[in-house]
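User: Sequence in, structure out. Go.
Assistant: Echoing your sequence, followed by the structure tokens.
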Amino acid sequence: MKALKISPLWKTVPMLNFTPVFLLFLSPMVLGETASYLGFFGVVAVVIGSYMLNVSESHKGFFAPVKALLDDKGSRYMFIVSLLFCFAVMAEKAALSYSNVIFFIVFYYLVISVLHVPVMIYKKLDVVGEVRKHYKEFFVLALITAVIIFSQTYAISIANVSYVSAIKRLSVLFTIVLGHHLFDERNLRDHLFAAFLMVLGVVLISFG
């Protein structure tokens, strides 16, 4: 959330495309899932795509786009999130092998909710008051979130983790388009092309 708050969507959300890259190297060791040689080309496509996100800075030097990416706090935060997502997805896959979808969802998100209670108390958040004030919005958000959680968890339980991650990453393209129309983020064509390269890389990694 902090990354999305301090940086444009086109700088942050595409960083999630690195999750399948991490999975390519870690899932064979943890889950025993394997990928083909096309995964290498997928990694190259993701790296090139991340470079292209700031290609407008290339007039300052070949490595200027990389520096611009690393200098952005939002991008760095989301890169870390991408790595954490990798471990979270593998943990979900492993846990689902010993459980079923419904039990896992209830137990997993119950634990997360309980862990958030000390944070809410520490920050003195009036959660109940906010829910009462915006109950309609919270209801719609909760409904959408429930559908997302169930769909994602069920997909992970029946398919290769890398495949599921690849399908999820398509959302990056939609997010960049929405960022352009809703928040007036510029250079839509360049950013969309860069994101497309990254998503293509994810597809190569997952389906290769």
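User: And one key feature?
Assistant: The mean pLDDT is 80.
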